[in-house]
Amino acid sequence: MKPPAPASKELNVCGWQAVSTLFARHPDEVRRLFFDVQTGKRSGEFCSRLATQKKVYRQVEAAELEKVAGTKLHGGIVAVIAARPLKKVTREVMGEWARTKAPLLLLDRVSNANNVGAIVRTAAFFGVKAIIVPDHPAQALPGEAAWRVAEGGMEFVDFYRVPALPVFCAELKRSHYLIGTSLRGNQLSPRAARERGLPRPPAIILGNEERGMAPEIMALCDRLVRIPGAATVESLNVSAAAAVLCWEFLGAR
Question: pLDDT, tens digit, for every residue of 81-92?
């Protein structure tokens, strides 16, 4: 007798913006829905859709909603979905990125899930549709905290995982211009680098919150930039740096 297939891991999507964007973009992914009294007043359309699919939706008390969500930061509503697997980078995928000149974001061991969520929100805002992460234990993956902070951005961005980021970067250089940040040396500002022109579509690399980019990845960058500031603190938070770099290299002019 064939053993039953293992149940897929589930993920809680919390907060009105994240849940409403989920229903707008991928409504069939929702397995169950829970909400409090106040949020229930504007969740009728969601409930009607789930009712036609014979799926569970329920108004619950605050204590139970917190238990379902696993956090107090649920925003009054929780949608349960199957966790989305990270995608693989194939030659076909890289070929499509090259053909469409797609801008990319690469995360080198960004370890804080809230930072990952904020980066996703920035990526979605600026039209970046792919984020690449390494298969590394220090790299935070798009879990529940990241989904909540992304405020719906997860519906517009795909995550890809590669075995080793340096190997991937070496291959990516053929089609993309690798841009990283450095606090050392007399680097150009992002704006000066942009004004000099980019020979290929940008792939922006964001390093670990404490250690920055790995030296072997920094060595592969086509351009290292330094975000100018008042010299009162050493650097920006990685998610803030992502927003600055995306604006400079991808923002509408």
Answer: 999 999 999 999
